[in-house]
Design a protein that fits this description.
This protein is mostly helical. The chain has a domain at 1-74. It is built from six helices and no strands. It is elongated.
Length: 153
Amino acid sequence: MEQRMRIALTEVNCVLENSEDEVLTKIPNKFKEYLNANMDKEFTPSFIPGLAIFAQPISMEAKELLKLVYRDFLATEDERKILIQKEEKILNTNAEQEQNKKIQTAQVNVFEKKEERPKENEPIKNLQLIKVEEKWYKKLFRRLKKLVNGTKI
């Protein structure tokens, strides 16, 4: 398990230890055992008694875990249904946004200009002959060579 998650579990455990007995009785012992087994024993969270839970100086992971604890163990059935519906809406909008980004990038890639390469058996268009002029010193050297060898220039 990642260190960030272990620290978040420690912070959640600290918040639960400082909460009221009514709250603790609603949370299953198996979850408490999981927290104790996986939390970071060396980390000491900075919990301020009397301060609201989400005003506490705890990590975002711990806040998310506390939201899940509330939804799964402390909320009434009606509240739980409403919270689940809200989460599903958020997940659906995130998935739609992700899908839209993929579509937009695909559309951009479609309209990018690609280099046209001739196919193997296809004749090449717009070919022109280029006259390559010989450099003056190469021309002179060639003529001198012919003169030395005795051929006509």
